[in-house]
Design a protein that fits this description.
280 residues; two-stranded antiparallel ribbon; single chain; alpha+beta; 8 helices
């Protein structure tokens, strides 16, 4: 059972007793779950899980530099998908600046839950034991895709940001959809955020096209299917090449009012109506 992780979000980590206790519980958990005796990956904001360290070294780094705030799924330290969380995860309380207690109920980031739902069969890597040796299998294609997404999930939007690149991007795209922004206006927003509002090196894509590629990896893209303007049929499968409706005879394409042409200035046909199909 993974211990509570709410301590990771505390700001004054060097002085907070709750944070220091959380560090000790994390170290106990990591050494027990990984089976390592001497060194584990250091998840401080300086090492970023790329450097090995002894228990004392990792403890010192976490106290001095702080832990990666978005590293709430400890897959480098033995946590597996579907592992139950400590009950204290849901009962953890912070003390606000005015001394009042504020209850925190959210157990995990929504994006991490999304990744877990998308890849339910992955447990963080497959291992087999052979005597005293522990052999790790090479991750398959699906596992590699999951780990790449998880790596994006961990990356902060900018240095010391509480928000991750992936969760920020999903929220921005949600606002775009709800507000019916054009692709061009969304690209303009990304450019302004990166150049004028966020810190240098902000981890956002440069355009809507790049953002869409990232989201496509999450399985959140849709299939666009042309539809009869009177909702009689879909131009799908064996009907995908038709130019008019089999039921009412209406044209599949938009027709220019004055010229009567079905192609726009770029020579492309535009469907009069389309369905956006979101595969479950």
């Amino acid at each position: 059972m993974a211990p509570s992780k709410q301590w990771m979000q505390l700001v004054d980590h060097q002085l907070d007793e709750t944070y220091l206790v959380g560090v000790q519980k994390f170290l106990d958990y990591a050494f027990q779950k990984t089976g390592e005796e001497y060194e584990i990956r250091c998840p401080c904001v300086k090492c970023y899980n790329t450097t090995l360290g002894t228990r004392k070294t990792v403890e010192t780094h976490l106290q001095v530099y702080g832990i990666i705030k978005n590293y709430t799924f400890w897959y480098h330290h033995g946590e597996r998908l579907g592992e139950p969380l400590s009950e204290s995860e849901f009962e953890f309380e912070f003390e606000s600046e005015d001394g009042n207690e504020v209850e925190e109920c959210d157990s995990e980031d929504e994006v991490e839950e999304l990744l877990r739902d998308l890849y339910p069969n992955l447990d963080g890597g497959t291992t087999h034991t052979n005597g005293d040796d522990l052999l790790e299998e090479e991750p398959n294609v699906e596992a590699k895709r999951f780990y790449n997404l998880l790596k994006d999930f961990e990356q902060p939007l900018y240095q010391n940001s509480k928000a991750s690149k992936l969760s920020s991007l999903i929220k921005l795209l949600h606002i775009k959809s709800m507000g019916r922004w054009s692709n061009a206006s969304f690209t303009m927003l990304l450019k302004m955020l990166k150049e004028e509002l966020l810190l240098d090196g902000a981890n956002l894509p440069n355009s809507y096209y790049e953002a869409k590629k990232i989201i496509k990896e999450l399985g959140l893209s849709y299939n666009k299917i042309d539809d009869c303007t009177n909702d009689c049929m879909l131009y799908w499968k064996e009907d995908s090449q038709l130019d008019s409706c089999k039921v009412c005879g209406a044209s599949r394409w938009k027709i220019a009012t004055y010229s009567g042409e079905t192609r726009n200035k770029k020579g492309k046909k535009i469907a009069s109506k389309s369905l956006r199909y979101f595969p479950l």
